[in-house]
Amino acid sequence: MDEQPPQPNPDDMSEEELRAAYEAQLKQVRVEDVLVQTVVSLLNLGGRKAGLAPGTEDERDPEQLRAAIEGVRVTLPLVEGVLGPDAKQLRDVLAQLQMAYAQLAPGAAPAEGGEEPPQPEGPGPAQSSGRLWVPGQ
């Protein structure tokens, strides 16, 4: 069993020793590890901004939620290989946040009284011009 030497107390270290210890830690950190931590942090924060966790309903913020979702969408593909099968779990959480955003975002709520939004009468411009293929027509 590998035993780690006792860690020195930072309060007892000189600035030069602290800097050297920090440099030694940085040498061990991989970019992928930081990206994974970032994805997990964004998903957790996104859950709060969606008001999904009990007691966080007053923290709902669609714009912050959208930013968290976009951050995960950009970063997750960079680390899926490192995550292996765990990537699916993170993708599932991302999908939950996307669904929550669709419900929270302005314009996503159904019309008052649960009514369907008004439908335009007649075909739209693409269909009436013949540029849109509609099955059965």
For the structure shown, list the relevant keywords.
0% strand, 5 helices, mainly alpha
Largest β-sheet summary: none
Shape: elongated
pLDDT averaged residue by residue: 82
Report the span from N to C terminus: 74 Å
What percent strand?
under 5%
Q: Number of DSSP strands? A: 0
Helix percentage: 55-70%
| Total domains | 1
Compute the gyration radius: what is it? Answer: 25 Å
Order of helices and strands: HHHHH
Low-confidence stretches: 109-117
Count the helices. How many?
Answer: 5
Structural class: mainly alpha
Can you offer a commentary on this structure?
- The structure is a single chain.
- The protein is mostly helical and 137 residues long.
- Helix content is 57%, strand content 0%.
- It has one domain.
- The longest helix is centred in the middle third of the chain and has 22 residues, at 62-83.
- The model is unreliable at 109-117 (pLDDT under 50).
Topology:
Elements: H1 15-28, H2 31-49, H3 62-83, H4 86-104, H5 125-128
Can you describe this structure in just a few lines?
By secondary structure, the protein is an all-alpha fold. The protein has 5 helices and no strands.
